[in-house]
């Protein structure tokens, strides 16, 4: 049972416990009741997928997806995965098994790694550009394992196999798709060619409209070299309230609490990461805390551009209208998560998600009429 919509896709995010920039983690790293409620809330709110993130010190994302899939029926998943720690032949079998057990609800977001420190915690000492070269080969092997009907040999720069094969194939491959959907991030010169070759959906953080236009243009051009088309995803942290004034007041409270918690936790203002995506968020923040109609960059600047940390601030109607501007650039997937993670997911389902779908449907209808 697919809940997916062809016009626009909404992705949420679930974690093992309640935690965000304004909520310090408490208790065990995995709270089963919270994960269950979190996953089911996204399904009921009308999300198409949820992202399960990966961190070098956090719970295993693959097992979290397996648990969340077992307590839901329709919602799809986006598993964050770092190539390099599991052999691609084994990862292919794991993902195919997970796709089978979830009823064809798996997608995988491949993250080559924007931080040497993060990678080294798991014993990876390749540099930034080498990691993207490895991802390129990794995805080649994955696809071959999923689609090959007989054992094959592979000899590359990073992997060497004799007689690689998988008895288990993804549900989606058996249904005529070549593989489990590939979501891909990375804005560096090393990343863009890999994105053009492999990505089904290329994921940007919540950049300005000008930045998003520039980056999607580059990725489209790279994909065209392979005769491919890529869909695009942008990530935001919507901050909603009944009036615009109340939404900005809420945004200010979130910023103040973020600052307070960082002091309590012993963090200074976040410095720039190796990640090109983080640098691009900080470049947007340099233009001021408010960019375009309602893009708010203050938290991103405070934490050093780590993760998707820019917000769209306003009423649900205003934020839906701002999302439509990105849709007009060719963005058809929106990853939205809140600073109050569970409560905001429920809130997004009330007006923001249905209103955005409505605006997109209207836009499509008017385009067809004009054609």
Automatic annotation (TrEMBL):
InterPro entries: Luciferase-like_dom, Luciferase-like_sf, SsuD_RutA_monooxygenase. Pfam families: Bac_luciferase. Residues 22-332 form the Luciferase-like domain. GO terms for molecular function: oxidoreductase activity. Its EC number is 1.-.-.-. SUPFAM superfamilies: Bacterial luciferase-like. Keywords: Flavoprotein, FMN, Monooxygenase, Oxidoreductase. CDD domains: Alkanesulfonate_monoxygenase. This is LLM class flavin-dependent oxidoreductase.
């Amino acid at each position: 049972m697919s809940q997916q919509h062809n016009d626009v896709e909404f992705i949420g995010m679930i974690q093992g416990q309640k935690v965000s920039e304004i909520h310090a983690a408490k208790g065990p790293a995995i709270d089963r009741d919270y994960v269950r409620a979190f996953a089911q809330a996204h399904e009921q709110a009308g999300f198409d997928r949820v992202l399960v993130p990966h961190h070098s010190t956090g719970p295993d994302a693959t097992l979290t997806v397996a648990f969340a899939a077992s307590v839901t029926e329709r919602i799809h998943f986006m598993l964050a995965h770092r190539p390099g720690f599991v052999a691609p032949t084994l990862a292919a079998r794991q993902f195919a098994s997970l796709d089978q057990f979830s009823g064809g609800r798996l997608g995988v977001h491949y993250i080559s790694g924007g931080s040497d420190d993060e990678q080294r915690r798991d014993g990876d000492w390749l540099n930034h550009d080498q990691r993207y070269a490895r991802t390129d080969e990794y995805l080649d092997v994955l696809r071959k394992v999923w689609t090959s009907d007989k054992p094959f040999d592979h000899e590359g720069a990073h992997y060497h196999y004799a007689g690689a094969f998988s008895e288990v194939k993804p549900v989606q491959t058996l249904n005529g798709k070549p593989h489990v959907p590939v979501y891909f991030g990375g804005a560096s010169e090393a990343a863009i060619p890999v994105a053009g070759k492999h990505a089904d959906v290329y994921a940007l953080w919540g950049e300005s409209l000008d930045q998003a236009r520039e980056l999607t243009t580059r990725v489209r051009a790279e994909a065209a070299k392979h005769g491919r088309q890529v869909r695009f995803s942008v990530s935001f942290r919507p901050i909603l309230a009944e009036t615009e004034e109340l939404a900005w007041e809420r945004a200010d409270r979130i910023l103040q609490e973020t600052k307070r918690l960082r002091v309590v936790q012993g963090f200074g203002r976040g410095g720039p990461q190796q990640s090109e995506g983080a640098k691009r968020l900080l470049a947007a923040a340099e233009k001021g805390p408010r960019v375009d109609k309602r893009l708010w960059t203050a938290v991103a600047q405070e934490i050093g551009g780590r993760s998707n940390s820019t917000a769209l601030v306003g009423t649900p109607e205003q934020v839906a209208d701002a999302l439509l501007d990105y849709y007009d650039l060719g963005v058809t997937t929106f990853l939205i998560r809140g600073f109050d993670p569970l409560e905001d997911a429920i809130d997004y389902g009330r007006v923001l998600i249905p209103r955005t779908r409505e605006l997109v449907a209207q836009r499509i209808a008017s385009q067809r009429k004009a054609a």
